[in-house]
Automatic annotation (TrEMBL):
Listed name of the protein: DoxX family membrane protein
Upper taxonomic lineage: Bacteria, Bacillati, Actinomycetota, Actinomycetes, Pseudonocardiales
Length: 129
């Protein structure tokens, strides 16, 4: 029998991986930071990576999982403008690249729902790890 990680553990892992990627390989993310944001793209890349790492920690810890789930949902909504910028910027690329860029747009919906479900699950059974 194979054990599956809990929904919360999977979300925390996903967020931690995304956050680490922002810090380790920021160039890709710098390019999709909306131009309307003040300051440098690198600042926003690193800030969003730090936010993902912080939210990952909140989701991982049972005591902070409920607010962490809500923070994760808000974070997934907050990065949507970067996905829109990527879709616009990649509109003249190859079909596979356009597909990747456009697929990121609706992907935010299941990510937000996943985070909200982690929040809801913890409200129902806070002793769950």
């Amino acid at each position: 029998m194979r054990l599956r990680p809990s929904r919360a553990a999977a979300l925390a892992t996903f967020l931690a991986g995304a956050g680490a990627t922002h810090v380790v390989a920021p160039r890709f993310f710098d390019r999709i930071v909306p131009d309307q944001l003040p300051g440098s793209a690198r600042f926003w890349t690193l800030a969003s990576g730090a936010a993902e790492l912080g939210v990952a920690a909140a989701v991982a810890a049972p005591r902070t999982r409920r607010p962490g789930g809500l923070a994760a949902a808000a974070l997934f909504a907050a990065v949507f403008p970067a996905n829109v910028k990527m879709a616009r910027d990649w509109s003249d690329r190859s079909a596979p690249e356009r597909t990747i860029a456009y697929a990121r747009l609706p992907l935010q919906i299941p990510l937000i729902l996943w985070a909200l479900r982690v929040r809801r699950d913890h409200a129902v059974s806070p002793q769950r790890g």
